[in-house]
Amino acid sequence: RGGTGARRARRRTGIMGGTFDPVHHGHLVAASEAAAEFGLDEVVFVPTGLQPFKTDRRVAPAEHRYLMTVIATASNPTFTVSRVDIDREGTTYTVDTLRDLRAERPEEEFFFITGADALSQILTWKNAEELFEAAHFIGVTRPGHDLDGHGLPVDKVSLLEVPAMAISSTACRERVERGKPVWYLVPDGVVQYINKHRLYRVDEGG
Ligand code: ATP
Ligand code: MG
Fold this sequence. Notes:
alpha/beta, Rossmann fold, 6-stranded parallel sheet, 6 strands, binds adenosine-5'-triphosphate, binds magnesium ion
């Protein structure tokens, strides 16, 4: 913009953290919408290690969650998966995720994609001010729902309506446990992976 020479704009990178237990089409639609709406060159999915707000239930082993995320994103050239959170010891904090990715990608502009539910808690997260310095935040909401203020810095947060918000990992796990299908809620390869490893069955698998 202006100036001499053909200086390229900074690469724009979406970051989608999640437990991905399992990854589902809500996550993929949100990433796709964010990429289209914000002109992202890449969306990096980052499966979490241990999570501060999910200590009350059993979570499938990180390698299973990681591999399901790889399977779900493999066919999209702009989607990638990072191991930074699962390779780091201990509880996952978003501030550490952003620090590790920044070290790997010093020149990129970061857009952290998160559900509006989580976004409204963000001020309670570890190092909230540093987070807003490290990335622009995209809060995905259900069509028709609005996120009022919550004291979030307006210049650092954008809201994005996505159509598949009704899908949740919790519902997918419960369906598998009760023997109901999850076809079309999660990618085909993820259905097959869940079956192959007998995930989310009571007293079995991960
Ligand atoms: P759980 O039911 O176990 O909480 P989840 O479906 O919310 O799982 P997470 O892995 O916790 O999935 O979510 C990762 C990120 O994706 C979070 O920012 C979450 O708000 C967002 N997200 C979850 N479900 C959807 C959806 N259907 N559409 C868009 N974003 C979603
Ligand atoms: Mg959730």
